[in-house]
Amino acid sequence: MSAVALAKTQASDPSSRRWLIAITAALAALLEIVDSSIVNVALTDMQSSLGATLSEVGWVITSYAIANVIVLPLAAWLGDTFGKKRYFVFSLVGFTLSSVMCGLSTTLPMLVLARVLQGLTGGGLLAKAQSILFETFPKSEQGKAPALFGAVAIAGPAIGPVLGGYIVTNLDWRWIFYINLPIGIFAVFMALTFLPEDGAPLAKKETRVDWLGLALLVVGLGALQFLLEEGHSHGWFDSDEMILLAVVAVGGLTTFVWRQLTIAYPVVDLRVLRHRSLAGGAAFSMVLGMSLYGALFAVPIFAQSVLKYTAQQTGLMLLPGALASAFMMPVAAKLAQKLDPRMLIAAGALGLVGAILMLGNLSPLSSADDLQVALVLRGAATVFMFLPLSLATIGPLPKADMPAATGIFNLTRQLGGSIGIALMTSVLSTRQVHHTARLSEAVSSGNPLATGRLEGVAQMLTAKGMAADKAKAAALAMVEGQVRLQSAVLSFNDCFYVAALIVLVCLPLVLLLGKPAKGAQVDAGH
Question: Which helix (H) or strand (E) holds 339?
Fold first, then answer.
């Protein structure tokens, strides 16, 4: 939409129509954000239903994240080329149909493919929804756009786990995707009815896109993701297949970077990384995504596999953390106007480390309160990182470089999230094998203490009327079950310790960030 057309639209639209447009965009954004968080509580049920391993079911989330990473650099170009309304409606329809495909999937590969399609359409949906919100209101009312988007960004993570938990517990995990159908149809109707019509598309010379660069990004990221997800099960670099994937990942991403720095129309303008604050902020954004999304991926699985929570209980457990984020957001926004954002980022990072370390001390005897205290601290701490990090990263940049810088900043966060989930699944699987072997050795027949305990359990069962041979077998099964449980707990603890270590090691990157110009306003993302 040109500046002239936008001005005419804002001038001709009464306030009520502007709000109908804003509600339409917000509804679409809410649909995507809820779907991003609703899946976490259903992973255990998906794993059981589809006969998948933990690392395999992680692809349900990472495939979506990778697809988001791929489409983010293209969202602006697609909107300019085909029209913002047409692309927005296409994304809504595609997201709704791919949601139905997710629900109909009978195998893990089918579900992953459907999630890729959902991610490709959902990424464009969120980008255009935010753009429409900012373009709908005139300059005198610009504060309403970020306020409405912020409310949606807060509501989504709060609604998603609770709604997902209720659906999985009382219906079936497939309904977390089917529920998008009526909402999606309504959103399409709203978009077709209220969004302003598109103007003429841009001239062809302005719509060039680096398809080779995009292909290199897809191949490099895909190889890296597969390496992280499957490396532990193939012996890492003892496998020719993993070595080949490593070569493809390094070669593809290195060539991608070289190409983006040397062509006139890059798909991701890496040249803006010459700004120190952006380079440091993008790196820290990736680290933050790795730690946050990786830890958040592990928490619901721990609650359901170790503490034996239902999906509904897990969703309710995650709610206070989301509400803590909502409560602290206006506080963080006010402090960001008065204090150096780098101070807030450091404080938030230390709070996040503390919360993750609390999660690292969980055990099978942990209560819901133990989890919720850590999750509330995590929710509050992250608010003191996202908005200040955006300000300290993009605020010091010249206005001409801000669009490209914002794209890179959002891209690194999403990329960090997908890498973080892959890393956590690898840590969980690898460390569980390690702890199982170590604990099994400790309770072997050569250990007098373990032998005595085993005999004591067998005698207790015999005293209750069980035959001696069956009592011995039952006692052995009980001990094996305890070994599996304890090894799982220790591997989750290791996972959380790794997430905390990642943040601590990269905390010095805050020193590279800049101080934004007075009155600078940037988007914090979601």
Answer: none
Q: Tokens 């069980």 label which residue?
A: 466
| pLDDT for position 445 | 58
**Spatial separation of the C-alpha atoms in residues 188 and 152, rounded to whole Å:** 18
Residue 174: how many other CB atoms lie within 10 Å: 20
283-312: b (≥16 Cβ within 10 Å) or e: bbbbbbbbbbbbbbbbbbbbbbbbbebbbb
The helix (run of H) or strand (run of E) holding residue 307 is none
Question: Is the sign of the CA dihedral 185, 191, 193, 194 positive or negative?
Answer: positive
Our CA angle for 4, 9, 14, nearest 5°, is 150
Strands (E), 416-508: none
How would you classify residue 52: left for phi > 0, otherwise alpha for psi between -120 and 50, otherwise beta?
Answer: beta
Longest dimension (CA), the chain: 88
pLDDT tens figures, 92-138: 999 999 999 999 999 999 999 999 999 888 887 877 776 676 666 66
% of the chain at pLDDT higher than 70: 79
**59-82 vs 84-104: helix crossing angle, rounded to 10:** 160
**How far apart, in whole angstroms, are the C-alpha atoms of residue 334 and residue 148?**
17
Neighbouring CB atoms inside 10 A of 233's CB total 16
Amino acid at position 203, single letter: A
What does the pLDDT look like over 424-453, one tens digit per residue? 888 888 888 888 888 777 766 566 666 666
Instruction: Read off the pLDDT of each residue in 248-260 and give the average, rounded to a whole number.
Output: 90
Check: CB of residue 68 under 8 Å from CB of residue 118: no
In 3D space, the residue among 208, 298, 219, 240 whose CA is nearest the CA of residue 498 turns out to be 298
CB-CB contact of 40 with 161 (8 Å): yes
Q: What are the structure tokens assigned to 85, written together?
A: 């309304």
Cβ neighbours, 10 Å, residue 521: 12
**CA neighbor of 509 nearest in space, from 295, 287, 324:** 287
Cα–Cα dist 212/249, whole Å? 15
